[in-house]
Amino acid sequence: MKTIALSFASSALVLGASLSALAAAPAAQPAPMIDGKDRPILLQRMVVIATPLPN
User: Fold this and answer.
1) Which residues pair with 42 in a beta bridge?
2) pLDDT tens readout for residues 1-55
3) Contact, 33 vs 41, CB < 8 A?
4) CB distance 24 to 16 below 8 Å
5) CA-to-CA distance for 18 and 12, rounded, in angstroms?
């Protein structure tokens, strides 16, 4: 029973530490915009994932 209580307490401690690290991360800032000819241009990085096409 003592082992279960210690295991539960250590798990809660690790979870609390990981959640506090996420909370301390800087907030995402909105991407800057510049004026284009006919519409605004959003300057932001994008992640693109490529998958191979079947033969």
Assistant:
1) 33
2) 889 888 888 888 888 777 776 666 666 777 778 787 788 777 777 777 888 888 7
3) yes
4) no
5) 10
Query: Rounded CA gap, 30 and 28, in Å?
Result: 7
Going through 1-55 in order, the beta strands assigned E by DSSP cover 33-35, 40-42
What distance in Å separates the CA atoms of residue 22 and residue 16, rounded to the nearest whole number?
A: 10
Write down the pTM of the prediction. Answer: 0.39
- Here the contacts of 36-43 (C-beta below 8 Å, separation 24 or greater) are none
34 Cβ neighbours under 8 A, 6+ residues apart: 40, 41, 43
DSSP state of 24: T
